Amino acid sequence: MISGIRIRGEEKMEFKAAMFAAAVVAVLLSSPSPALAQKKSPPAAPSPVSLPPSLAPAPAPAPHYVDLAELLSVAGPFHTFLNYLEKTNVIETFQSQANKTKEGVTIFVPKDSAFAAIKQSTFSNLTGDQLKTLLLYHAFPKFYSLAEFKNLSELNPVNTFAGAPYTLNLTDDMGTISVQSMWSRPKISSSVYATRPVAVYALNKVLLPMQIFSKDPPAAARRTRRAPRAASAPASSMAW
Ligand SMILES: *[C@@H]1O[C@H](CO)[C@@H](O)[C@H](O)[C@H]1NC(C)=O
Ligand SMILES: *[C@@H]1O[C@H](CO)[C@@H](O)[C@H](O)[C@H]1NC(C)=O
Ligand SMILES: *[C@@H]1O[C@H](CO)[C@@H](O)[C@H](O)[C@H]1NC(C)=O
Ligand SMILES: *[C@@H]1O[C@H](CO)[C@@H](O)[C@H](O)[C@H]1NC(C)=O
């Protein structure tokens, strides 16, 4: 690009060209990225005054990615809930909400023991849509820290991920937070994960909305079966 410089007898031109070339080189060396950006932008539009990198608005922080399936498989045990999430693909809905870091997600995860306490056919009798709704009922499409539940409890009833008629009431009884559905009032027994945009709280019971279990509270599992199952640990509780 500096081939024109050496043309005989044109000292001034040569000097100007050399200065220009030096300036171009200086620009290229000092700020490679704006130069590259300008190269790519359409030539017609005059580019606005570009700020030095330090004054340009900071790029949005990289989304904090949480793999929900992995989280639930190592915490818990939450195998029953996770199996249902995967079977119905609701895990994808939650994961995609978690990926949208703006709102985030809050998931209430009943422990395996919570599912084991209810008669098994209660859940296997549900239609695919009912099961899906039940799972979505266990989440808010927004991140809430435990501290925020106190305020949230003033907004009862609170909409869940399952949509308008599926609401929960939150209560904060001297720091013990409960989640009230029609047929159950589980406590948040622990915070499994609570870093924006993902909150996962363990429940000691399954949430049972009126819209799905309309007539009666679901029957408890029979005690005579529960005792040996509890003793023989994970294999049998995962079998169904
Ligand atoms: C969520 O984000 C991760 C990481 O970017 C990506 O691998 C995954 O496919 C996304 N999942 C959904 C359901 O959007
Ligand atoms: C599930 O369906 C079967 C067959 O219809 C019935 O016998 C059983 O009582 C149902 N279980 C529950 C918990 O509703
Ligand atoms: C709860 O609400 C009060 C009053 O609106 C506010 O000052 C406080 O920051 C809120 N707390 C949380 C944890 O959001
Ligand atoms: C939730 O709270 C609202 C308003 O206080 C009340 O009308 C409703 O009956 C409550 N629902 C449950 C399931 O407790």
From TrEMBL:
As given in the record, the signal peptide range reads 1-37
Q: How does it sit in the membrane?
A: Lipid-anchor; GPI-anchor
- Location of the FAS1 domain: 65-207
Bias type Low complexity, positions: 229-240
Give the residue ranges for region: Disordered. 219-240
Q: What is its main location?
A: membrane
Record-linked PANTHER family: FASCICLIN-LIKE ARABINOGALACTAN PROTEIN, OS09G0482780 PROTEIN
| Descriptive protein name | Os09g0482780 protein
Source organism of the structure? Oryza sativa subsp. japonica (Rice)
Tell me the classification of the organism that encodes this protein. Answer: Eukaryota, Viridiplantae, Streptophyta, Embryophyta, Tracheophyta
